[in-house]
Every structure is written in structure tokens, then in C-alpha cells.
Amino acid sequence: MIVASVVGARPNFVKLAPVSRELRKRLDEVIIHTGQHYDYEMDRIFFDDMGIPSPNYHLGIGSGSHGLQTGEMLKKVEEVLIQEKPDVVLVFGDTNSTLAGALAAAKLHIKVAHIEAGLRSYDKRMPEEINRVLVDHCSDLLLCPTRTAVENLRKEGIVKNVYLTGDVMVDAQRDCAKIAEIRSHILADLELKDKGYYLATVHRASNTDDPEKLKAIIEALEELGDVVFPCHPRAEKYLRKFGLWEDLSRKVRVIKPVGYLDMILLERSAKKILTDSGGVQKEAYLLNVPCITLRDETEWVETVEDGWNVLTSLDKDEIVRLARDFEPCQERRDVFGRGNASAKTAELIEKLASGSLEGARS
Ligand code: UD1
Ligand code: UDP
């Protein structure tokens, strides 16, 4: 039996790593890389750091508008699926690569499994929200990281083949934490003291593409000082476009995006994390680091409910105040599971492929 995993962007690779390892104990896996991300530090470094097998197909799509990028992916993924005839297509998260993989498979009547099903921001202006909703509605197996995700699907009438697996990013972090301590020298290279700096990441289109919001974030980081900022290429593009790149002083250390091993250590040693990333919010929670989320809403509501994550509406002074003063006041829980999501996922995918999935369970 063959499962085809469709990936293309940084967060897809992180989720693929632990799942691929488990899948290969049970099934043949074909990895299809759309090429959505392509810079070494957005792409290949994750395969190297996390020991992900090289893709069997690299479609080389690259950047473009949503329609163009997704359309090109759809066309080329379909060609591969017709050739490979997999039993299941596996997609991850909410990127354009996720949507293209799911849509190509569904139209060819190939079963679709979705990792990170059921996440919702309820903001239709967010491209990822469109992707998630559409993918969930054409999936045959919905693998949910949290109870909230299961409940979100129920509200949309999706109850068949919905499983609570926990979050595969817990597995990824566990698998790589020790390796990171041995192989990563990032803290020494940047001369960082434990809990002596803020870590910032910004890439959400609603922040980067809006000059006022991006300016407020940069001004807040400047005022805070002691900031390490691995800069996503999208953020760099818009910082340059809006003339903000030149304003960055040495108080904000802008570095290239880092690999996963470096990122784990940067996150773990940060005193606080400021981010608009979904994955980074979760990782902050898992690593006991308070998080300031630079958005009005989050899909990872448990991190906020538990008091470890706080949302800001992108007012410069509020970002600064929260970064300085916000302190979690209660214990964290195991809301993302205990690190066996990948094994559960592989087991369910094998059942889906062989036609022996129970049917309706949640
Ligand atoms: C995509 C995902 C987003 C995810 C993010 C992770 C969609 C709709 N969005 O956003 O959900 O959180 O990836 O990082 O799929 N670029 C480069 N080099 C690269 C990749 C991108 O320079 O290797 C630049 C290009 O100018 C490109 C821009 O970044 O136009 C945006 O890239 P794109 O993949 O379209 O979306 P992301 O913002 O990365
Ligand atoms: N990440 C990384 N290096 C960076 C920034 C992020 O390794 O410079 C990792 C991060 O640890 C997490 C994943 O990339 O595992 C999150 O991806 P991203 O923030 O790009 O997307 P999102 O999760 O918001 O979709």
C-alpha cells in the first residue's frame, strides 16, 4: 500500500518528519514536494536537520499569487498521483500545498487524510482559513491535534472518521531536542545568555503586507531591545518595500531563518517569544516560554486559556507592555497530547488505506 505525502512549506516539513518515520514502518511512502518554499533555510535545512527522506518528486512551483501557485500545484500534483496511484494522500496543516494536494486527490477519488484537521481562526480573510475549511470538507480521515479541533469539526457537521491523535509537533520536538543540544551552536554563535533575549518571528500576510502593522511591530521590537529576529523572506521583502529595513538598529538582531534544531534552542532559552506563527505559539507553550501573539485571534486557543499566550491588537505600546509584563499564572496541561500522535496517525492511515477504518468515531 502506498501513501503519498504532499508538502511544500516549512511548517509542512516539521510535521512530516515524525509522521514519515512512523508511516515507513507500515506502508510505502512517496513524498511529493511542491516547491512552495525553496530557499535552503526555508526548505532543505529541515530535511537535513530532521532526517526527512528526500522527496521522490519535486514539482518546483515556487512563489506566486494564490490562484497561480495553487493552480500550478494542482495540475502537477495530479500528474504525479495519476502515475503513482497511491491508496491515500496525506496533507499537513493549512498551506496552499495542503489545499492543492487534497483537491487533486479528492477529484481523482483517492482517499485524503488531513493532519491538523479542525483548526479554525474564523477569519475568512486569512488564506490559511480557506485552505483548512476546504481541506477538512474533502478529507476522508481527519486527524485532530486537540479536543477543540474535534468540536470545531462537529459544529460543521463533520463527525465521520474524526480522530483525536494529539499534535505531531510534540513528537517532532521530542525527537529533535537532544540532537539540537549536540548539533546546534546557535546560542554560542550569537553570544546569547539563557533568558537574556526576546525571540521574534513575523510572517503572517495580515502583518507583513500592512505597512502600519509592520511598522508598529518593528517599533515595539526596537523599544524592547535584546531581540533575536529570524526573518522570514516574506517579512524581509515587505520591510524593504516599506523602507523599514534600514531603520532596524543593532537592538534587533535580524538573522536569516534558522533550521529546526537552532530554532528549538532559540525558543527554549528566550525569556519571551513574540510571534504570529501558529507552530511557534505551540512550541513556546511546550517549552514553558511565555508567548505574545501578534494577532487578534488564534487557532491554538488552549495556550491562551491556560494563560501562557496572550494576543495583542498590534498597538506598539501594548506589544511592549505585554512583552515586559506578561507572566503566566497557572500550570500548563497536556493539551497537545503526550508525543504519540505520529504513531496513532500512521496506524489510522494504514487502516484507511486497507479499507478497515471503523467508520464513525470521534
Ligand atoms: C506560507 C503559508 C503559511 C505558512 C508559511 C510558513 C500559504 C497560503 N501560506 O506563507 O500558512 O505559515 O508559509 O512559513 O500557503 N519566499 C522566498 N523564499 C522561499 C519562500 C518564500 O523568498 O523559500 C518569499 C517570496 O517572496 C514569496 C513570499 O516569501 O512570495 C511568500 O511565500 P509563500 O509560500 O507564498 O507564503 P508564506 O508567506 O511563506
Ligand atoms: N521555524 C524554524 N526556523 C525559523 C522559524 C520557524 O525552524 O526561523 C519552525 C518553527 O520552530 C515551527 C515551524 O517552523 O516548527 C513553524 O513554521 P512557520 O512559523 O513558518 O509557519 P506556521 O506554523 O505559522 O504555519
Walk me through the structure.
- The chain is of the alpha/beta class and 362 residues long.
- It folds into 2 domains: 2-167 and 337-354, Rossmann fold; 175-325, Glycogen Phosphorylase B (Rossmann fold), CATH 3.40.50.
- Helix content is 46%, strand content 15%.
- It has 16 helices and 13 strands.
- The protein has a 7-stranded parallel sheet with strand order 3-2-1-4-5-6-7, with helices on both faces.
- Helix 10 packs parallel to helix 15 (316-325).
- It is globular and about 55 Å long.
- The two termini are 25 Å apart.
- The mean pLDDT is 97.
- The structure holds uridine-diphosphate-N-acetylglucosamine (UD1) and uridine-5'-diphosphate.
- Residues 10-11, 14, 201, 203, 230, 257-260, 263, 277-280, 283 line the site of uridine-5'-diphosphate.
Which structural traits does this protein have?
single chain; alpha/beta; Rossmann fold; 7-stranded parallel sheet; binds uridine-diphosphate-N-acetylglucosamine; binds uridine-5'-diphosphate
How far the N terminus sits from the C terminus, by CA atoms, comes to 25 Å
Number of helices: 16
| Helix/strand order, N-terminal first | EHEHEHEHEHEHEHHEHHEHEHEHEHEHH
Number of strands: 13
Number of domains: 2
CATH class categorisation of the largest domain: Alpha Beta
Spatial shape: globular
Q: Into which percentage range does the β-strand content fall? A: 5-15%
The largest β sheet comes out as: 7 strands, parallel
CATH topology grouping of the largest domain: Rossmann fold
Q: What is the radius of gyration computed over CA atoms, rounded to a whole number of angstroms? A: 20 Å
Uncertain runs are: none
Name of the CATH architecture of the largest domain: 3-Layer(aba) Sandwich
Task: Tell me the helix content.
Answer: 40-55%
Q: Give the CATH H-level superfamily of the largest domain.
A: Glycogen Phosphorylase B
Question: Ions, cofactors, ligands: which are bound?
Answer: uridine-diphosphate-N-acetylglucosamine, uridine-5'-diphosphate
- The helix-and-strand class reads alpha/beta
Average of the residue pLDDT scores: 97
